[in-house]
Design brief:
Number of strands: 10
Order of helices and strands: EEEHHEEEHEEEEH
Shape: globular
Largest sheet: 10 strands, mixed
Low-confidence stretches: 1-43
Length: about 230
């Protein structure tokens, strides 16, 4: 039987260890999403997954960490916000990665991923100097938005789906990921958060679900500036 996985990752059968998928995202806050880690961090029961901090280089002091992002994203009401109240988090983790720009400058790029049966959600942070307004020119089919008084950009991108079967892995076009790039403060200066949602099938994600998640999760993230 072939197991097709779309999006960042999806829980696989016990004992199966394989890279599940990759999502391509325009390069304002880090370029291409890497191959996601897929080791399940649930406890072998049907309980919701708890956040697991992957081994990585920690961010500098006073900057949000992948673990903090995961704790903010992996909330008990996340399934209800996504419109799938009967589901629960199957995997949840945070990671403290870095982006190396031309010239060698490194920027902390922490992220968190939570996967449910229907949806996957990613929350990331960036300390770059690009304003969210510049995303209108750099992101595909970007639309200006406001989230809790903060400038934001809504855009779409495609996922890549990987299929596993017969000892081979094949890739192909996946579904659509919908993303919100949101300024950390109301002035829209440098520094931003990004929330992306995509489904494990080819159905386009619900924008209303994306906005519900953003409006409740972002104010709980360290570094978010209200007002």
């Amino acid at each position: 039987m072939t197991d097709k996985v779309t999006g960042s990752r999806r829980g696989l059968n016990t004992g199966v260890q394989a890279v599940a998928a990759v999502v391509l995202v325009a390069g304002v806050t880090g370029g291409i999403w890497g191959l996601s880690r897929v080791l399940p961090n649930s406890n072998g029961t049907n309980d919701p997954a708890r956040c697991s901090d992957r081994l990585s280089t920690p961010p500098p002091p006073k900057r949000v960490s992948g673990e903090q992002l995961c704790q903010a994203l992996n909330r008990a009401d996340l399934p209800a916000l996504l419109g799938t109240p009967d589901e629960h988090a199957q995997t949840a983790d945070g990671d403290d990665s870095w982006i190396t720009l031309d010239g060698g400058t490194k920027i902390a790029s922490p992220e968190a991923n939570v996967t449910l049966k229907t949806y996957s959600v990613k929350l990331s942070a960036s300390d770059d100097r690009l304003s969210v307004a510049q995303g209108l020119d750099l992101l595909p089919k970007a639309e200006p938005r406001q989230i809790l008084g903060h400038p934001a950009v809504l855009y779409s991108d495609r996922t890549i789906a990987l299929s596993f079967g017969g000892g081979k892995a094949e890739s192909g076009p996946g579904g659509v990921a919908r993303s919100l790039l949101v300024a950390r403060d109301a002035k829209g200066g440098g520094g931003s958060f990004e929330i992306s949602v995509w489904r494990q099938d080819d159905v386009v994600p619900d924008d209303a679900a994306l906005f519900r998640v953003a409006e409740l999760v972002l104010p709980t993230v360290p570094g978010w500036k209200s007002g």
